[in-house]
Amino acid sequence: MTRKFIQFIYNYHIFSILCGLGIIFLCLIRIPLQENTIEIPNFDKIVHFTMYLFLGGAYLFESTHKRTSSMLWIYTKNLIYCGIMAGGLELAQMYLTSYRSGEWLDFWCGMAGAFTSCVVAVLIRLAFQSRGR
Q1: Within 13 Å of residue 50, how many CA atoms lie on the same side as its CB?
Q2: pLDDT in tens, 63-116
Q3: pLDDT at residue number 10
Q4: CA distance 2 to 73
Q5: How many other C-beta atoms lie within 10 A of the C-beta of residue 93?
């Protein structure tokens, strides 16, 4: 039973979907103003980078568990999916909300996070391949 459940999670990208829904929620909610806030320069850029690092990592983890295509294609799909989501959310923030502003630098920080997830995945694969020799 547990094995079938885990296989279901991997086959249908449940972690990636939950991570993506979390990103959509975080990017489109109205954040209340707070009086006693600590200012961290470019904190939103760090958040965008981190969100897409985790989204890309979740997608790559689920995709490489049951590999049916080449790794290059899996990495490319990861960047395409993250790019569509990052760009779509920035456009949604820009045109569908009055309390958020879409910035293309946020998009590029998200893409940097997705790219970093690919680089980390490649490094992990290389580390485990060299161990097996």
Answers
A1: 9
A2: 887 666 788 999 999 999 999 999 999 999 999 999 888 899 999 999 999 999
A3: 81
A4: 30
A5: 17
Contact present, 27 and 21 (Cβ < 8 Å)? no
Assigned token pair, 8: 């279901």
Query: Which pairs from 103-111 meet CB under 8 Å and 24+ separation?
Result: 105/45, 106/44, 106/45, 106/48, 109/45, 109/46, 109/48, 109/49, 109/52, 110/48, 110/49, 110/51, 110/52, 110/82, 110/85, 110/86, 111/52, 111/79, 111/82, 111/83, 111/86
H or E element, residue 61: helix 43-65
Q: 46 CB contacts (<8 Å, ≥6 apart)? A: 40, 109
**Pairwise CA distance, residues 3 & 133, whole Å:** 29
Eight-state DSSP code of residue 102? -
